[in-house]
Input
Amino acid sequence: MSSSAPAPSAPEGHGPVTGPAAMRAVNRSALLGALFLMATSAIGPGFITQTANFTVQLGAAFAFAIVISIVVDIAVQLNVWRIIGVSGLKAHELGNRVLPGLGWFIAALVATGGLVFNIGNTAGGGLGLNAMLGLDATWGGIITAVIAVGVFVSKRAGVALDRIVVVLGVVMILVTGYVAFVSRPPVGEALRNVVLPEDVSFLVITTLIGGTVGGYITYAGAHRIVDAGITGVDSVKQISRSSVVSIVLTGVMRFLLFLAILGVVAGGAQLTGENLAAQAFQSAAGEVGLRLFGIILWAASISSVIGAAYTSVSFLTTTRTRPRTRNLLTIAFIVVSATVFALLGQAPSTLLIVAGAVNGLILPLGFAVLLWVAWRRQDLLGGYAYPKWLALLGTVIWLLTIYLGYQSLSGIAALWS
Output
């Protein structure tokens, strides 16, 4: 009898693991990558634009909307990550188990919306490099796509993915934090508005929620943990903790960006036009501020290119798909997005409106499937007794996602008016 046992299999993209300590380290790396993947997927060009516009519109009162949206986002993520993580099945696979064909319908919605938005993300990367280095925006978008492809060309694509999203996330937070510091925002006023808001906009709150956990974004980290093999009842605590941290990271980035712009607005600067964030950064730190804005916009865009491509393809494959096949499909997804962008120079506005509406339908439909599994399909959770309080909280939030979906349909109606 041999005294040596085979090493346990490692999560996708990692080398062989030689013991429990090494496995824990690999799991920590994958969980860190998953939570940053979700956070950086949410922090895209649209996230920056939304935050700038709402800060100018609401001033310090925007702090209240940010905090409320974070609370709701946490409730969504806790349910999505736990149900997918415990089952070990991706959202569309669970959908097909609940009702044959439903999962593939959701997958088609995700892939359609993800492809169109990735054209916009590629364009954002081009604009970021233009602001940072003065590079032509079209070439900047192509370079952004090439770098994103490089992540999935690697033989250890899983490790590369985990590491680059962490680096990009840290860079965005540090750079935004610096600008927030030099703009000298009225922090006390912002904190007071968290508790006693001067203005409350339900529309702004729901828009923030849709932009943070709407569409494919809410599934990005959850699907990553499934690919990394961090699943089952034994991983519940790790999964739940990571789902909350991912939203907190997104909230920190939004709050720092809000403070950076609030400092400029409170200082008397008049921000007008389309690119309010760029104006605010330039006003706060001069030419350096504009370059720093380019760094943030580029980091936000390339991380969203990676996140949208990875998550969209994760809906077109299953847990049985070979990692190499999944990587090749992801590369093709990025190449198609970049090619359309290079030919058009931008994402067509009509398609973006349609994709936005499609995105608004993904969360209520997909979330309904997951909640059905939590309430009625314990067999898909390996016999795990899903917490009733969490399922009830998720159901209440699901009603809000229906409203978000209804609101998104107005974009389609606008095309025919």
Residues 1-9 have pLDDT under 50 and may be disordered. The first helix runs from residue 20 to 42. Residues 143 and 194 are 41 Å apart (CA to CA). Residues 30-416 form a domain with the Amino acid/polyamine transporter I fold (CATH 1.20.1740.10).
